[in-house]
Write a structure and sequence with these properties.
By secondary structure, chain A is an alpha/beta fold. Helices cover 40% and strands 13% of the residues of chain A. In chain A, helix 7 crosses helix 10, helix 17 crosses helix 21 and helix 18 runs antiparallel to helix 19. Chain B has 220 residues and is an alpha+beta fold. Chain B is globular, with a radius of gyration of 20 Å. The chains are: A alpha/beta (545), B alpha+beta (220). Chains A and B meet through helix 17, helix 18 and helix 19 of A and strand 4 and helix 3 of B.
Chain lengths: 545, 220
């Protein structure tokens, strides 16, 4: 980045809602009053990750991080930015166990234990300014691909990297690219799935808001590799800031010649359009997403059917990947597949990005190497459970995932280990729960969500998830029956094996894992009319039968 | 004479499959469900109707192929040598709960129902020998939704609808774009009429094909 001090004000959705725009305005006014507006850089950036402590202001090149900044702190911050030596003490993060001030973000455990590669630019560049992206090696991977590599070389490189789809299912990305490339057809499409909808997940949103060009670059490279000329970024309408920043980035990339006709002077044409979803969770499913773009009802297509790679959007071969998957592509190209594959585990390469939330001290956006232990995430990065409470469970994979108990804290976090325990990687939500959480209530919460978001097409999901929700609701209200646990298990199997799409097939996971690991809580609710966590009230009210 | 002229003759009816132990000669391109029904082997189904595109939505026609995965019989084409079992423990553990859920959720006023006698759900209940005690474990809806007038010819009972979509596909099959659509989502999914009411010729095919008697000719 360029010389001179820079004040970076986080403008992710979290910090914005905490008032970071007011902080920015106040800093700008103060700089102007002091006649320093031209000497000190003042930038709006995307999410810095440490959302718990927002609004966040970072001073570069000193690497100083200020937490919970208010507009009236502006003068003090500017004073410290001039020298980079004196800190504004009351804004510095303090180690919660020792109370020692940790002014530099590299010393804060939340950052120190992470491996921020895909999130490397997040919080450091202005996402609405392509110059910032270019100064940080942006579009170098695209240059390399277009000028030095053939499409098949690109696919080979992605295959060798071992990258797996980060939308949840973990399908090998290179294989998907190869299938789309081999599918016959002169018109093909690239779609970026930004329809993130899991409760508690915000990693795709943050990435789109903080580093939109990385996603665009990944998509252009994908277009070149499979022979597509057109791409869509499907963003849910509830993410207005992500939509805005993706659109700004696309128009800037077009002006600079990274999108459009004859990209970088080659014969390759590619352009991208943002498509806003209409608020249905099921549209994150690939075939429903495709139908939604086509203007149809967002209903998943039943098997057997042609793969999206062969017959996707408008019946043409279509490559569909998650936001994070595309953001990994420029990294693989720049640093090479060998380096990429050297990180992570044998079958899950690279890093994973999580939205760490719930009953954990340090909520935020994190990036960790695949294979890291759950304990390191929750205690090392997350700082453990606040208020002296005990850890009870961690939920991964949102409504499709499961709740894992303390016995599994030393389990490695990767696609296959999580699946083996009944949960899944999912898109990257990670919700920590403490001893005051009722696991039956948690299962009820997720089933309330899935039955509401079921598309209604197939019977097991439409009626089955509704039925499971009603049973769970009864249990939390003291109306549980002795046979309900077995009934839930029976329905789970029918819904998992009978549903038409992944939404229904994975919907029972929160129930299955909570029964598997916390069965005694179900039994206490049903037989003793007692909620061990003290969450469910009125368990022994007169209406109890 | 082009080669394909002869080839065509030999290509039909040349697939041999086994359904529930019976060897059956089947036509290439036919689905498992079509072949089974043609040979008097019953597979439960609600959203399939001959001549309409199979939707695979009701999930009741799931069968096991070669002791492996479950597939919907309505959408899976027969292949030579295929071994199909229509009722295995694995199939039963999926299909029986689905049928029970449907029945628990369906307002069982069979006595006054126009669908009674030709009702596919009654047939499924009888064929699968669905027990009342198992259905009673489930939570049934409280109260009833009002009957909806779809247009001046047709009333619609959302309490009985199984959302098979046969009426919708029938209408679009006859009228091109069609007047009937699914609206809402999840548990609230129902059928609605869209478009110019005067263009509906009240052919009543939708009501006739309804497997459960949800569409009732209006008395108005």
């Amino acid at each position: 980045m360029s010389n001179g001090p820079a004040i970076l004000v986080c403008q992710g959705t979290g910090c914005l809602s905490g008032g970071s725009e007011e902080v920015f305005v106040s800093l700008e006014r103060e700089l102007r009053n002091l006649g320093l507006r031209e000497k000190v850089q003042l930038k709006r950036t995307g999410c810095h990750g440490f959302c718990e402590q927002g609004p966040i202001v970072v001073l570069e090149p000193y690497g100083v991080l200020y937490c919970k900044v208010k507009p009236e702190d502006a003068a003090e911050i500017i004073n410290s930015a001039k020298t980079g030596e004196k800190f504004v003490e009351h804004l510095v993060y303090c180690d919660p166990s020792t109370g020692n001030p940790l002014p530099h973000y590299r010393d804060i455990p939340f950052y120190g234990k992470q491996e921020r590669v895909v999130l490397g630019r997040c919080g450091k560049i202005d996402p609405e300014n392509i110059e910032d992206y270019l100064r940080t090696d942006g579009y170098l991977a695209l240059r390399k691909v277009l000028l030095e590599m053939r499409p098949e070389d690109v696919i080979e490189e992605v295959k060798r990297s071992g990258l797996r789809g980060l939308g949840g299912a973990g399908f090998p990305t290179g294989k998907k690219w190869e299938a789309s490339a081999k599918a016959p057809g002169d018109q093909k499409y690239v779609i970026c799935n930004g329809d993130e909808g899991d409760p508690g997940a915000f990693q795709d949103r943050s990435l789109m808001e903080a580093d939109p060009h990385a996603i665009i670059e990944g998509m252009i490279i994908a277009g070149y590799a499979i022979g597509a000329k057109k791409g869509y970024v499907y963003v849910r309408a509830e993410y207005p800031l992500a939509v805005k920043r993706m659109r700004i980035a696309i128009s800037q990339a077009r002006k600079m010649g990274f999108l459009g006709r004859g990209i970088l002077g080659t014969a390759f044409d590619f352009d991208i359009e943002v498509f806003r979803g209409a608020g249905a969770f099921v549209c994150g499913e690939s075939t429903a997403l495709v139908r939604s773009i086509e203007g149809d009802k967002g209903w998943p297509k039943p098997l057997p059917r042609p793969r999206t790679a062969e017959k996707g959007l408008w019946g043409k071969p279509t490559l569909l990947n998650n936001v994070k998957t595309f953001a990994n592509i420029p990294i693989i190209i720049r640093y090479g597949s060998a380096w990429f594959a050297s990180r992570g585990t044998e079958k899950s390469k690279g890093t994973a990005i999580f939205s760490l939330t719930g009953k954990v001290r340090n909520c935020g956006l994190i990036e960790v190497p695949m294979g890291i232990r759950l304990r390191e995430i929750i205690y090392g990065i997350g700082g453990g459970i606040p208020n002296g409470k005990k850890f009870k469970a961690v939920q991964t994979g949102g409504p499709s995932g499961g709740c894992l108990p303390a016995e599994l804290l030393d389990m490695p976090v990767d696609f296959d280990s999580l699946k083996a325990c009944g949960s899944m990687m999912g898109s990257g939500g990670m919700v920590v729960m403490d001893e005051q959480t009722c696991m039956v209530d948690v299962a009820r919460y997720f089933l309330e969500f899935t039955q509401r978001e079921s598309c209604g097409q197939c019977i097991p999901c439409r009626i089955g998830t509704r039925q499971m929700f009603q049973i769970l609701d009864d249990i939390t209200r003291g109306r549980g029956r002795r046979e309900d646990i077995d009934l839930l298990l029976e329905l789970s199997e029918a819904i998992a094996n009978g549903s038409l799409c992944a939404l229904g097939q994975t919907a029972p996971n929160p129930v299955l894992t909570t029964i598997r690991y916390f069965r005694d809580e179900y039994e206490a609710h049903i037989s003793e009319k007692r909620c061990p966590a003290g969450v469910c009230q009125n368990l022994s009210s007169p209406e109890t039968t | 004479m082009p080669e394909s002229f002869f080839a065509g003759d030999y290509m039909t009816n040349d697939v041999s499959i086994i359904i529930d132990g019976h060897r059956i000669a089947a036509e290439k391109g036919a689905t498992i469900l079509e072949v089974a029904l043609r040979n008097n082997i019953y597979i439960p189904h609600l959203c399939y109707y001959p001549g309409l595109k199979p939707k695979g939505a009701c999930r009741l026609c799931m069968v096991e192929i070669d002791g492996k995965e479950l597939v919907t019989a309505c959408r899976t084409e027969v292949e030579d040598g295929m071994v199909i079992n229509t009722w295995t423990p694995k199939v039963e553990r999926v299909v029986r709960p689905i049928a029970e859920l449907l029945i628990a959720n369906h307002h069982a006023t069979c006595k006054d129902c126009p669908g009674t006698g030709k009702c596919e759900l009654q047939k499924i209940r009888a064929k699968l020998k669905i027990q009342r005690s198992r259905v009673e474990r489930l939570r049934s809806p409280q109260g009833a939704l009002p009957i909806i007038a779809l247009n001046r010819y047709l009333d619609y009972d959302p309490n009985k609808c199984v959302c098979c979509g046969i009426c919708i596909d029938t209408c679009s099959d006859i009228n091109g774009t069609g007047f009937l659509y699914f609206v809402d989502r999840g548990y609230s999914t129902k059928v609605a009429f869209f478009g110019d009411e005067s263009k509906c010729e009240s052919c009543m095919k939708c009501a006739m094909r309804c497997p459960v008697g949800v569409l009732i000719p209006s008395k108005r």
